[in-house]
């Protein structure tokens, strides 16, 4: 049994940090905020997801020794690859789900606070094979996936969220991430989620000389292994119950030096088809919230499995979740941690997932022959088929990602099927 309680002593030396007090909203104020959502901006002026100076770390385990090969994206990009990035950026569009006309202009809604959660993205070896195994595919995919996650936070009012990728860790050997490799169960395709999460907290703390704790607010490991809530007969048992993400409740920015663990960590299941965007958004929202929405919240270990709400209603945040977001920032340390600006350089363009991988390709990536049908329904509930003659849809338990074509001249944006013509660049 372990404790994630943390006592923080703050000493101000010749510096005063003034963090806006995010007061607890009254029911009337919250109701008003909830009913008047801001426009979603795909290309906001202050967006900075990732830049050419963002560090990339390639990991290899050689005879029990973890070798780290650090680069910056700028070191890896050739001139031709930069042109590919720039060309792909022309497929980006902005959207406003509350308007008939979609625009890339700045929202008229006055966001009072801007928070920049800096995320260390860790890619497990097993997922690498789903991404063609080369670094160009990996980087492009990560940028696109996390841009889609960032979009899910654009509908939160009063607090402006701008996710930032603080760094990328790529596991180049199966045992590079011991907290994944050591906790595989059953057939080696499943993962003991709770113990793996706990081990990740210790692993990140132990390797802080390689990945400084001060460089990121949240660490998220992406793995293709299924996450087990409960494992029968410990390590050798069957995965009884599965989930899409696991994390600690309200532990963004938390490093516990007495436990020698950093609890600002999460693990999400992913299959390399721009899937589980909502799961990723929901998981990191739990790290940045104060209220637990699960019966498991009373567990003494204070971890929580990030089960995704029903897909039809999960694109917008609930009033409870919004309240939890706002209340989280009453803590001056947490507020400052997430409000500081990330290091900036020449930023890389961001993409809509569905403009890079269409519905058929997304289904094929996870073992189906193609999409069951291409219409507005896939923006709410994505279905695939095993063959083109197959009349039975297979429900994927998530919606098609933004940018996926949902009919002639239409695409999915914020769970809606909208016309290309309704979008202005």
TrEMBL record:
Listed Gene3D superfamilies: 3.40.1620.60, Collagenase (Catalytic Domain) (3.40.390.10)
Signal sequence segment: 1-23
Family matches, as Pfam families: ADAMTS_CR_2
Keywords: Disulfide bond, Glycoprotein, Hydrolase, Metal-binding, Signal, Zinc
GO annotation, biological process: membrane protein ectodomain proteolysis
InterPro entries for this protein: ADAMTS_CR_2 (IPR041645), MetalloPept_cat_dom_sf (IPR024079)
Domain ADAMTS cysteine-rich: 353-418
Keyword Disulfide bond: yes
GO MF annotations in UniProt: metal ion binding; metallopeptidase activity
PANTHER family per record: ADAM A DISINTEGRIN AND METALLOPROTEASE DOMAIN, SOL NARAE, ISOFORM C
Name of this chain's protein: ADAMTS cysteine-rich domain-containing protein
Source organism of the structure: Microctonus aethiopoides
